[in-house]
Design a protein that fits this description.
With about 425 residues, the protein is α+β, with helices and mostly antiparallel strands. The protein has 2 domains: about 1-220 and about 340-420, Zn peptidases (Aminopeptidase, 3-Layer(aba) Sandwich), CATH 3.40.630; about 220-340, Alpha-Beta Plaits. It contains 12 helices and 20 strands. Helix 3 runs antiparallel to helix 12 (about 410-420), helix 8 packs across helix 9 (about 295-320) and helix 10 (about 350-360) packs across helix 12 (about 410-420). The longest helix has 26 residues, at about 295-320. The chain is elongated, with a radius of gyration of 23 Å. Bound molecules: zinc ion. The site of zinc ion (ZN) has 7 residues, from loops.
C-alpha cells in the first residue's frame, strides 16, 4: 500500500450516496464496550498470547518475506500462508480461482461476517534479492513491512484466537490475497467481492504494512500504458519523419506542467518509459506507464481528461513539427483502475478501531492510502486498512527496513479489533 498520514481531520468532501450506504450497511458495533471486551477472560488470554508469541510472529514475517511474491507470481508465498492457516487451526482452508488463500473461524452467530485480509504481493520483480537481515530489533529486506508484517500479524491473530479459544460473535474469514500492488489492480479483492465471498462480507479490515494508522480514505488510481507509433526508419537517411520518442517526451513534459490540487490530494507520475530498437534508428514505437491518483473520484476523472488532452496535444505537435506524409498515432491501454472510496470518520468501524487503540493505550492516527480496502469502500461496505505494528521505512524499495520495537502492540491491536468487529 501507499500511505499518507493526515494531520487532524480530513477535509475530503463526503459523497452523499456512499455516506448513506456506509451508515445503512453498518451494524451497531459498540465502541464504548471495547474496554469491557478487552477484560473478558478469553480475550485477555488471547491478548497475552499475542504478546508472548511476538518472536514467532517476527520469525513468520521473515519466513514469508524470503519467499518472493512478485506481482502475478504470488503462488509460492500463498502456499506458505495456506499451510500456516492449517497449522493455526483455521477451517475450510482453500485457495480461490484468483489465488487468494482463505481460512475460516466460526463465530456463535452467522453475522456479522468479518474479513481480515493482508496482501501477499510485493512491488519487486522476481529476481530481487529477498533475503532478510536481522540486526537486533531491525529487520532489513524488500517487502519486510509491506506486506510481510501484515501477513505475519494475520497469522498471529488467528493463532492467538485459537490458543485462547476466543469466542467471537460473527465468523472471521482470514484472507491472504493476491494483486494489491502495482499492476495487480486489486484483482484479489475484486475476485473476493465479486465472486468468492460475494454479498457475504459485512466488515472488512485490511492489515497493510507497519505502524498503527487507520486509513479511511481509499485513494483511487488510474493507470495507463500509452504507446506512440510511427513509421520508424534510419536516423540519418530517413531524418524528418516524426518520432514516437519525441512525441512521448512532449507528452511527459505537458503532463509534468499540469497543476493539481493539494486537497483533495491529486497526483500524477510517468513511472516507466521505453521503446526503440537502436541509437541510430528512429523508433517505430515508444511507450510510457502513467499513474494518476486522487482521494476524490471527481478529481481523478478531471485529471484523467487533462492527461488525455496533453497526450493528444503532444501527438499533434510532433506531427506538425515535421509536416510530412507520415504521422504518429497513439494507443492508450488502461492497465489499472482502483476506485476511490472512503469510510466516514464517524462510521462505527472507525470509532471501534479508535476505541480499540485507546483501550490498549495506543495512538492510531488517520491516514489516506491506496489499499485493498478501496474496493469494499467503493461498494459501501464498512472497511478500513490499519498498520500491523512496528515501524517500516523505505517501503517499495530494496532498502526497506522494519523496526520491531513493541511490534506486539500492533498484533494486539489487530486482534482486539478483529474480535470487536464480530460483535453486533
Ligand atoms: Zn501494502
Amino acid at each position: 500500500m501507499n500511505r499518507r498520514r493526515v494531520s487532524g481531520r480530513t477535509t475530503v468532501a463526503l459523497c452523499l450516496g456512499l455516506e448513506l450506504a456506509v451508515a445503512g450497511g453498518a451494524q451497531a458495533q459498540r465502541p464504548d464496550d471495547v474496554p469491557a471486551l478487552a477484560r473478558m477472560a478469553d480475550v485477555k488470554a488471547a491478548l497475552a498470547a499475542a504478546r508472548t508469541s511476538e518472536p514467532r510472529t517476527l520469525d513468520d514475517q521473515i519466513r514469508f518475506c524470503e519467499t518472493p511474491a512478485s506481482p502475478f507470481k504470488e503462488a509460492a508465498r500463498a502456499e506458505l500462508l495456506r499451510r500456516a492457516f492449517v497449522t493455526v487451526g483455521l477451517s475450510n482452508v482453500r485457495v480461490d480461482k484468483a489465488g487468494n488463500v482463505l481460512g475460516e473461524r466460526p463465530g456463535t452467530q452467522a453475522r456479522p461476517h468479518v474479513v481480515l485480509a493482508a496482501h501477499l504481493d510485493t512491488v519487486f520483480p522476481a529476481e530481487t534479492d529477498v533475503r532478510v537481515r536481522r540486526e537486533g530489533v531491525v529487520l532489513r529486506g524488500a517487502g519486510i513491512g509491506d506486506n510481510c508484517r501484515g501477513l505475519a500479524v494475520l497469522v498471529a491473530v488467528a493463532r492467538a484466537m485459537t490458543e485462547a479459544r476466543v469466542t467471537t460473535g460473527g465468523p472471521v474469514t482470514f484472507v491472504a490475497n493476491v494483486g494489491e500492488e502495482g499492476l495487480g489492480d486489486l484483482r484479489g479483492v475484486k475476485a473476493l467481492f465479486s465472486d468468492t465471498l460475494k454479498g457475504r462480507v459485512d466488515r472488512f479490515l485490511s492489515l497493510d504494512n507497519a505502524g498503527l494508522t487507520i486509513s479511511t480514505i481509499g485513494v483511487g488510481s488510474l493507470r495507463y500504458r500509452v504507446t506512440f507509433r510511427g513509421p520508424g526508419g534510419h536516423s540519418f537517411a530517413e531524418f524528418g519523419r516524426p518520432n514516437p520518442a519525441a512525441a512521448l517526451g512532449r507528452a511527459a513534459a505537458h503532463i509534468a506542467d499540469l497543476r493539481v490540487t493539494a486537497s483533495p490530494r491529486t497526483t500524477f507520475n510517468v513511472g516507466r518509459i521505453g521503446g526503440g530498437t537502436s541509437v541510430n534508428a528512429i523508433p517505430a514505437n515508444a511507450w510510457m506507464e502513467l499513474d494518476l491518483r486522487s482521494s476524490e473520484a471527481a478529481a481523478l476523472t478531471a485529471l484523467d481528461r487533462r492527461v488525455q488532452q496533453a497526450i493528444d496535444l503532444a501527438v499533434q505537435e510532433e506531427n506538425r513539427r515535421w509536416g510530412r506524409a507520415y504521422s504518429i498515432s497513439v494507443q492508450r491501454e488502461r492497465v489499472g483502475n482502483r476506485p476511490a472510496g472512503f469510510t466516514s470518520a464517524s462510521a462505527p468501524i472507525v470509532r471501534t478501531a479508535q476505541a480499540v487503540a485507546r483501550a490498549l493505550g495506543l495512538t492510531a492516527g488517520p491516514s489516506e492510502s491506496s489499499s485493498d480496502a478501496n474496493l469494499p469502500m467503493s461498494l459501501g461496505i464498512p472497511a478500513i486498512a490499519i498498520g500491523a505494528g512496528g515501524r517500516a521505512y523505505e517501503s517499495h524499495t530494496e532498502q526497506e527496513w522494519f523496526d520491531g520495537t513493541n511490534a506486539w502492540q500492533g498484533t494486539q491491536n489487530a486482534l482486539l479489533l478483529a474480535i470487536a468487529l464480530t460483535r453486533d
